[in-house]
């Protein structure tokens, strides 16, 4: 809808960029109640790179991920995965939700959780065969959790739980990995293990997009950054985008409603 | 007498009822598991109470059209329709207003039930209504169960089992992690609708057996009981079905032994008895098991602290510690360490010293995370790592 406002040539260039990008959103606006949690966000994620979504609390970081995944219904805007609508490209996306969003007393073991990553392949009635199990175990191996395969998930530490969820995402064998605060409340060893796996994915040409809250590690962990405070403040390679000024703008108090409207109206 | 009932020897009607309760128990146990895991168990209470106006209105309609009014198919159709409307009301109130699901359930349940009672009273005043026996839907009435009713239960139970088998993966995912379910392409909203549809089916066909007030017990108690016995969804579902079936079968058999014993309530009581046994005796999650675990843990803590106190030559004040050390043969009655005790104490001390080094070294971060003051370091480090630690602790400390 916002594309209509852009000139003809820019529109063509934009379309080309969208087709190439593993994930791009245009004019994405989400609100819980009357105030927008995310306002007219335009994001084009670079393929084969690791991108961090950074911003203050309540900036709409998780909302951006959830709306991009279709978990939250946006008020306006569109999402494209490799230029296609999301519903056609579900297989391309893997997701690691925030740890708090799950029922930890659920009767399920570590290996069962990883198997959930294969549900799309298995379908409703597909038999679980030896090669499925081997694939799930291989994913556990990559996050260093093989010894815990038969534990109930509630018995794990926060870091271990996070690794299991990463293993489930690995089992999805997707092109794009979306992670919601993967390093929140995890121990140093887990953080190291997770980042190693993510970098492996990136080096294999996959795309990683993670909500991240630790500003100090952004330059070492990530290639690109999206600075977000209800709207996209800046986006691009860490070297040029992750600047003092841009961070000041992102974290410097709330935006006046008038400015927000002006910004939204312009594009 | 009970043995006869259990072996289907108490006549045609009692056998039908026992078989029907068995099938209903299995279906309700299986269907209720996902309701329980999705933490929406009470929605079934709203559904069951919302059947009542439908039953009454269906009766009135059928009489008005010149029919018998007691046709079970018609009554159950009415029940299903009004339960469906009640369910939609709960969904709508929860999604579109600021009411929580608990308040929505309370409102729908009481309003529909009240309305149903009013209609039932009206039916009582009708000429055709007096012998209708509609109050049997409240607490169940199995006295005149027909072959067709047992057949209906059998068909419905099979249908429930097939549906759950078909939907087991989406149902599991929606209950465990709705966000991930959405990403996988299974919309949690639709899956919930399917789940509620299954529950509605069980509720409606179960009305005549246990009644609308108690059907919720068949849906909730078996899964809660089964949860004590397993950490796996598929196992919980199966155990829940078995427990539900067992409760139905035993309950119906017991109630068949005496004319005054109502089937539904007895089934619920049997189900509760199974719950009580599981609550107390289940390994892992049961009360006794966790008491034993707690006590064992407490003893380990006391022993460890006692040994460390011995190693550093401090007196032991706590009586439990004293007693445990005595029983282990590590101290004499006057509190002085035996030779065994000294050996154990210096081993505990060495363990602590090794742990201190491991915990202060970032290279051992993974191992250090497993420190809990009780685990022996030999169980965490490999022999190579251990000799590395010991080398760095050198010169070896003399045992005092």
How do the strands and helices of this protein lay out in sequence?
The complex is a heterodimer of chains A (267) and B (400).
Chain A: H1 8-20, E1 23-32, E2 35-45, E3 50-54, H2 61-69, E4 76-81, E5 84-85, E6 93-96, H3 110-116, H4 119-122, H5 130-142, H6 158-171, E7 176-180, H7 188-203, E8 207-211, H8 218-221, E9 224-229, E10 231-237, H9 238-241, H10 244-251, H11 257-266
Parallel strand pairs in A: 3-8, 3-9, 6-7, 7-8
Antiparallel strand pairs in A: 1-2, 1-4, 4-5, 9-10
Helix pairs in contact in A: 3-6, 5-6, 6-7
Chain B: H1 2-6, H2 12-37, H3 43-49, H4 51-64, H5 72-96, H6 101-125, H7 136-139, H8 147-176, H9 178-184, H10 188-210, H11 215-227, H12 233-256, H13 263-281, H14 287-311, H15 319-327, H16 339-360, H17 365-368, H18 383-393
- The percent of residues in helical segments of chain B reads over 70%
Major sheet of chain A: 6 strands, mixed
What does the main sheet of chain B amount to? Answer: none
- Rg over CA atoms of chain B: 31 Å
**Number of structural units classed as domains of chain A:** 1
Mean pLDDT of chain A: 85
User: How many DSSP E strands of chain A?
Assistant: 10
Q: Which fold name fills CATH's third level, the topology of the largest domain in chain B? A: ABC transporter involved in vitamin B12 uptake, BtuC
Q: How much of the residues of chain B is beta strand, in percent?
A: under 5%
CATH superfamily of chain A: P-loop containing nucleotide triphosphate hydrolases
Distance between the termini of chain A: 10 Å
CATH topology of chain A: Rossmann fold
* CATH class group of the largest domain in chain B: Mainly Alpha
CATH architecture of the largest domain in chain B: Orthogonal Bundle
Q: How many structural domains can be distinguished in the coordinates of chain B? A: 2
Shape of chain B: elongated
Q: How do the strands line up in the largest sheet of chain A?
A: 6-7-8-3-9-10
Give the topology string of chain A: H per helix, E per strand. Answer: HEEEHEEEHHHHEHEHEEHHH
Biggest contact: A-B, 31 and 29 residues
